[in-house]
Amino acid sequence: MIQTIVPRPVAWVLSEHGNGEYNLAPFSYFAPVCSDPPMVMISLGHKPDGSLKDTYRNILERQHFVIHLAHRELAEAVTRSARVLPEGESELALIGMETVPFEGSPLPRLAAARVALSCRLHEVKEVGNGPQYLVFGLVERIWLDDAVVGQDAKGRTKVHADRIDPIGRLGGNEYVTFGEIVDIPRDA
Fold first, then answer.
1. Residue 18 to residue 21: CA distance in whole angstroms
2. pTM of this structure
């Protein structure tokens, strides 16, 4: 299933450890689930030793997290941040990522990301035999790099997906990047 439901967007999630350090981990079971209020979902499992993932524990304990959409140039850093580290250690130092303040958010955002969503825990559902934890987050703030924002023909704000250039997860070590964009108008 993991290698056939592709591509999957990657949520690169920043959360805060109890010691004040930041955790950064990628999750490809991620989707928007509601428009009003704006809400997203990420699915988290366990570490290889069976313990809870730091991201899950951090979200439960501190209620906030920031989802970044990584782009092509960040793909290697995304993979490196997936490494299992001892609890409380930060992937940011390991991969050399910098953060900047995220206005209106209790957490910072990655300086290099083009899109960031500041989220507050809404609800958790347990599913499956593992179990997996479906974490529903209310999106409280969205930050977009000016380079990805423009206007459409009617003068409305348009986010240019090709300028975000997000990576998508396939199976194993494989990611996909943007190729040709096809614009197919809908019937009114």
1. 7
2. 0.93
